Amino acid sequence: MKTVFWRKLLRKLSLVAVCASCGVVSLVLADDSGSPTYGRWGLDTAGIDRSTKPGDDFYQYAGGAWLAYASIPADKPEASLWRELIARTEMRLHDLLETSARTAAHRPQDLNGKIGAFYRSFMDEQRVQQLGSRPIEPELTAIRQAHTRETIAALMGGSNSDYEDSFLSIVIDVDLRNPKRYVVYLSQGVGYLSPWPSGLGLPDRDYYLVSHFKEQKAAYQTYVEQLLRMLNWPAPALRSREIVEFETNLAQAMWTEAQDRNPVATYNPMTVVQLRALAADFPWSTFLASAGLSTVDHVVVREPSAFRRITAVYVRTPVQVLQAWQAFHVADHAAPYLSKPFSSAWFAFHERALSGQKRQRARWQRAVTAVAGGAFLEGERFGTFGTMGWGVGEFYTAKYFPPAVKDKSESIARTIVSAFRNRLQRLDWMGSETKREAIRKLDTYVIKIGYPEHSRDYASLVIADDDLAGNVRRAGAFDWSFQLRRLASAVDRTEWLVTPQSDEMYNGNFNDIVFPAASLQAPLYDPNADEAVNYGALGAIIGHELTHGFDDHGRKLDASHVLRDWWSKDDDAEFRRRAQRLVAQFSAYRPIPTDAQVHVKGELTLGENIADLGGLSLAIDAYHASLKGKPAPVMDGFTGEQRVFLGWAQANRGKATEDFLRKQVVTDPHSPDKFRVNGVVRNMDAWYSAFSVGPGDLLYLAPEDRVRIW
Prior knowledge:
Helix content is 49%, strand content 6%. By secondary structure, the chain is an alpha+beta fold.
């Protein structure tokens, strides 16, 4: 049931990168006067902290006054300008769903009616409360009757179309060695980069293995026991301890997030016969058949050494523990759609204990997430599966995405692509043959704006306005059926992996960049704002996505989207040398100054850091090109280059709870906001000249110490 929101599901298999932060503060809506959303020309000049020198802390300078008065909403773990964008999208979706719900039939046949009935089923809190845990009784009954590891493996195989969990994820995606076909990828499920199922109830293996997270681990065990008691499961206290021990053993067996980022090491094709030999004690035939893959004869295994260890843990774990583990995860996955005791317990653990969020979101907000999908990672786990996001996206773009925005954003994108081509041609560290291949790859990029060409046909999906958990279950099964059908079809390169109401992404398998309709709003893009600010925000993000195809991960694919080494040995070595310098820089950053154990993982965040640095560099070049030789205007004392940098910094400003930051640094490939600003600009010569930064300033790096890649 964890298969709809493809941003999350395909990110690590498809070389997909999604690059928005997430947040909501006070909503600021643009008026109809043609004025920018922020200030007179698109920047929040009142948010600048003029008491701070730009060279000492550019992040503080660009947004320190805002940081001083902005507060984290009780129903959010962070506050940022991105959250305003999400809030605006959420309110628009709310209006659409309320309108659909008013005229929807009990069991509608049309798309608008199904969306409305789905939303109404979530908003019927009295009905949900009356049902208690009865909606998941079919799954619980099957678990109680699963007395062998083989029958439990069958339940795990069904996890893409129901509420069950699995410590082995199944994803259908383009074959990295043969991009004309789809293939089945098998992966350990762990952490921010993986889809549900994951097998682990905590966000990452570090939460089980690092003493720094002992309080969260203890809270998790309490939560496991709480849900088991609510299910009247036998011996809940004992079973909760055993479940946490089982998952700790799984965590020890799994690869780290940094290891999982290597596309070469994680591409291991094999026949199903070879798969059985790899981990002989696991009932693979039963597992695959339950997933609808009984006829598949070859797969790609991402972490073969981990598979041996993980399945060994499974074999030595008593069946009654596996049953309790599965029962808990069914309840955990379904909890947002069940009665208040379940949904409140889910919130108390996942959002309050793990992220520091103080209050649960309003029911209408959770309903929007359930039906339309988790916009910009909203709700992170809740809202990533079993939705009707593609159908909702049709109505969203029809009402809220004017053609003029599409045209102007495409114009900026073309300028950024041209700037990247020029930079590649001028690179002084890359050899001519590798450079030619790089430009060939750039020329294959497809930039998709707004919404996909083809609609998703929901005619066969049954939705009822009195069956919330059933709607989610059926929507998840519907999506998995769609994925299974892809196996027998040619690769569709017009396909989108994110809905129009979500955030932008780079998909390495298709070599495309997707900018959905909802992402083309302030602060990312405001058609009424100063172009320098637009280049600093949207332009830098477009450049960011472009350079993902050439980061430590994406550069392993060639111009034909094939996993192939197309770099010369010297160029490869030089890239690695420069990248490792960036790893060292970011690994030294501490987002919570009072906690020395919390630091950025430079290896985990390397791809995003390279993309941030490259994207902002391209934005500066593209802005200059857009002037067509004319001098940049000065606005309120700020030069054009200064406004590009400020646009980037303000688009990335935010504040978060300490628990959220602790989770982010171990699970998220993006660095915390402060370092996406300071860690990037201090490597850019243009920033030094724009703000007269020199020796003695705290962010100053000598020219030879600045990392230059693109």
